[in-house]
Structures are given as structure tokens and as C-alpha cells.
Amino acid sequence: MPQPDFTQELTQSLAERIFVLDGAMGTTIRSYGLAEADARGKRFADSPKDLLNNGDILSITQPDAIGDIHKRFYEAGSDICETNTFSATSIAQSEFFVEDPREHGGRKDPEFFQKIIENPFLNELAWEMNVESARLCRKWADAIGTDTGIKRYVAGAIGPLTVSLTNSPDPEDHAFRVVNFDQVLEAYKLQIRALIEGGCDILMIETIFDSLNAKAAAVAVQEVFLEQNLKLPLILSAAVGLGGETMISAQKVEAFWIAFAHTHPLAIGLNCSLGPDLMRPHLEELSDCATTHVSCYPNAGLPNPLAPTGFDLEPRHMADHMAEFAGAGLLNLAGGCCGNTPDHIAAISRAVAGKKPREVPVVKNF
Hints:
45% of the residues lie in helices and 10% in strands. By secondary structure, the chain is α/β, with parallel strands linked by helices. It has a single domain (7-352), classed as TIM Barrel, CATH 3.20.20. The protein has an 8-stranded parallel sheet. The mean pLDDT is 95.
């Protein structure tokens, strides 16, 4: 059943303390040593493509592992955990279950993706992934919240896609897009309905690298709210490059805020892409302009394939950086993205405990 709107409750809590987000689902999954057969399970044993990198399918084939990851992050101090649904749309899942026309001289285009949007198998799979992932996270949010007496929340993760509405992949035809806005909108609406059905408290459009894709997700959120006569808190988080641009769409941090301010999000923030040291100036810029809460969950440094987690920074390093962010008055929500394990989150939780949260500017007639 749909959850009540916790916006006011969360706003009051965020005025009192810095909330802790979770860490990296993908990084933590790898520590379980799962093999291709584990990802497939009996149900997808005959799938023609490899599924091991399809982390979202583990909510169906390995629910105990995914549930255990949520449990560990909540126990580490996470106030909010994200569902295991980063790629749980029909569009993203088509990469694992539909033959790529480019392998036979064809191309992906809106005609191809219209078939994806209308594919019953992919739609049913996306629905099940989101509902079951939300229920798994909900189970442990309620259990750990009851055990500790500290309420925990579930954020429905709405990730980026493998296609872009902003850029053309064809250097000879700059107007060409492989997919159109309405198709992306429909894929996101199905995901959002399923996340609500599974019991999410918050919706989180995250790791935004294409602002137009994120616009489609934000429109999908608003349309589903209208059709179901409900409202949930919304968080938006962008992946940024070294220059503070939202990757493919090249939209700078201040422009990112201006583009989404009208959605009145509970929080807006930055995640993934960079380590905390490189992300700091962009976080400072966002903190200066945003008139809502600010979140930050960076990678544990830059990628390093020789490091145990694939990233250099250890829990103590992440704790030091996030404590500095908090001390500078830049944070309302803190966590970690790629390379951040439950141990990293536990260290971050201790580091920001007792720190004063960033003050949200009061804006009249906004």
C-alpha cells in the first residue's frame, strides 16, 4: 500500500541532525562472491545473455543477499536506504534480455524502443523488480527501526538509463535520438508506480548524468502523484564531472538546481562520479544556491582496480572528508556511492553524529 507523505516529518528531523544515507549496492554485492548461476537462479537459467552484472535481478533470484545488504547498511547507521532498482526499467533491462540490432547491422532508434516499452515480459519484470526490491528494503527498515527505536526510511532508487535524450549518437545527424521523451516517461512511470506499490517512503532520482532524462523522471513522478492522488518526498542527485557539469548534458550545478527547483524536492545533491575531495567545490556551489536540503554521497575516491573495493578511500578517509563537509555547513544528508561498504557508512555515521546540519535558506514567495 502507498506510504503517507513524510515530507513534514523529514523536514523537522533534518533541521535537527544530519541524516545518513547508505553506501554502494554494487560494491557490496561483489563482496558476496556471487557467480553467474547465482544471478540467474532457476528462473532465468536459460537466458541467452549474461546476467551477473544485472544487480537488480538479484532482488528476485537472491533476495536473502539483497535483504542482508539493506540490513547491514541500516545497522551501520543509515537513516535512509535506497532500493536495489538502479536499472529496473524496461529500457535498461532490455540490455540483458533483447538482442541488440546493432550486432546485425541495424540500429537502436525510437521504433526499436517502442517495442521495448510495449514488451510484456520486460514490463512485468520491471514491475516485479521494483515491487520486490521495495518490499525487501521496507522489511529491514521496519525491523531495524523497531529494534533501535530510530525510524528508518526507504528511498525508491530511480537511476539513469543507457540512452540519452540530450545527445545524438550519430555524428551525421545531430537531431537523431535513439529514444524519445514519451518512451522514457512511460518507462519511468511504470517504475515509480511499482516502487510506490512496494512501500517506498521517498522517491530518489539519482546519479543524473543527463538532465533531460531526469526531467522525464520528474514529470513521471508528478503524473503518478496526480493519478494516484498522493505525494511522497522527492530527492534529486546528480553525477558531476571535474568542471561541475552533469556529465552528458553538461549542465552546471547552479543550472541543475534551477532546472529542478520547481519540483520542490526534499533535497538536491551530488553523488557518484568523483571522490569527496574533488566533489567539494561543486557541493559548496550547490549549497550556496539551493533553497532546500543538500545531500552528498561521493565515490570512495577515484577508481582503482587494485584496491579491495575498486576505490582507494578507506572508511576512515571517507569519515574525515564527510566530517569536514559537515563542519563547513554543507550537508543535510551524507552517504557514500561506489566503493562505500557498510564499514564506510558506519564511519561516516559516527563522523557526522552531533554535527549541526546545513541551514536551509528561507525564501519568500518561492
